Every structure is written in structure tokens, then in C-alpha cells.
Amino acid sequence: MSSDSNKMRRCTFVIAVMAVFASACSDQSVDLTCAEHFATGTSSLSKLGNGIAYDPGNNLHWYQCNAGQQYKNQQCTGDALNVSFNATTIAVGDLVAEEKLPPNLNWRMPTQDEYATLTDVPCHSPMVDVGVFPDVKPETFYWSGSDSNNADFACGTRLKDGRQQCRISRSSFNPTMLVAAGGD
Q: Model pTM?
């Protein structure tokens, strides 16, 4: 084989490798943390004050702290509920009855679909706007109000990666977020 043929093959190989790298650079998926992504102001949520964020596309109001916490001076204070599913259901009802949540909204646990509106983002670690939800717990599943197919299990969403499942033991300890549909 002539040296010209070898040079041509090497050049073709180098060009092919460069084309692969160049196409990878133009890929629309970018490996960003959500802190980096939302720092550019791309959030669909708007902060209304008093610890409430509003999602106009889905007509949802989100409490910016985990259930059990208080929103003060743009921070979440106190301990998040981290109890069984049944205890969480009772505690959320008590929080609403005791008016320890912002008024005028019917607060409850989010459904799986409502959590998905937060985690459908082109970023990770966790997959939510951490500027809006400053104390999210990414390493655990968050209880959901969605029904499981089995009475022994409940549904939840892990905000770290948006993973959803409905086979979480109801006796497990997990936090929850709070949401209200519609409202003022």
C-alpha cells in the first residue's frame, strides 16, 4: 500500500472523528445543574410572596418550603415533615386547619402529574428550580397524593432525577411538597 493511500485513510479517519466531536458540541442537551439553568431566569414559576410560587401554565400554586416548614425572610425554617404516608396525610390536613399555610388556597399533597410539571426541565441535581424551592431534599422520594394500585404502597417522586414510582411502602418516612390548584 502506498504512503499516499495511508495518508488519505488517516485524513479520512481524522475528519470523521472531528465530525463526531463537532456534532456532539451542537447537541441541544447540555449537562447543567438546575442551579445553573435557572440562574439565567428561565423559570416558568413566579414568586408571589409569602412563600408561594405560581405556575401560570398549569394554574398551580406551590408552597416554596416542604410541608411542616415555615417560609420566613426568603428561607425555609424549621423541620420538614418526614413521616409515614398516613401521618403525612393527617399532618397536611392539620396544617391547613391550623392555618399555618398561606391563606385563601386549598393546600394538599401534589399528584404525580403535578410533580412532573416541576421536574420536566433540561437540568439535574435536583430537577427543580432551587431558587424557588430552596430546601428541597433530593435524596428521597416526596409523597404524592396520587393513588397506588396497591393499598400497602403510596406514590412518590424523587426530585433529584424526577423518578416516579407507586411502590413505596406507606410506612416509609418521606417529606412532601404542597400545592393548590387555581385560586386567586
A: 0.79
